Amino acid sequence: MIKNLKLKHYFLLIFLVSVFSLLSAIYIEFILNQKPCKLCIYQRIPYVFAIFISFLGISSKNKYAWLFLIFLTFVFSSLISGYHFGIENNIFEEFSGCTNPNIDLLDKSKIIESLNNNLPNCKEVNFKIFGFSLATINLFISVIISLYTLKLLINEKNRSK
Questions:
Q1: Rounded to two decimals, what is the model's pTM?
Q2: Which of 8, 33, 71, 141 meets the CB 3.0–4.6 Å disulfide criterion with 149?
Q3: Where are the domains of the chain?
Q4: What's the CA gap between 28 and 138, in Å, rounded?
Q5: Is it the case that residue 80 has pLDDT exceeding 80?
Q6: Cβ–Cβ under 8 Å, residues 156 and 57
């Protein structure tokens, strides 16, 4: 009974962290007018999955399967944010989707459309919190959640033996 209560609290924590992270990203984008790059947008996807997984994990009897999905979700989040961190710090080259497309400078309508729809490069860090980019903060959060979830998975596996 106690372990199920502890896991329910953990799923609730993951739910709250995910909701807070998404709301923060939306606030930074729409209220503070900081356009996200493509990788910033991709980094939101694992948090959306985590909301649904944690919600299902709270109400499910098979907590181990949902813990494993949380683990996979945040490992994936760690990979995306780690790659973005690497691009920001010149460890990796930007993939072609991160760079702005070439436009026909002779066509006035294409220039205006490009200026309106242009996302920043993934290398540009336009917004920092306590000196850290959002990709760095996401990497830190994702790695911590991944490692703690792995610890819970190992403990659950040992208890079932």
A1: 0.85
A2: 71
A3: 2-160
A4: 14
A5: yes
A6: no
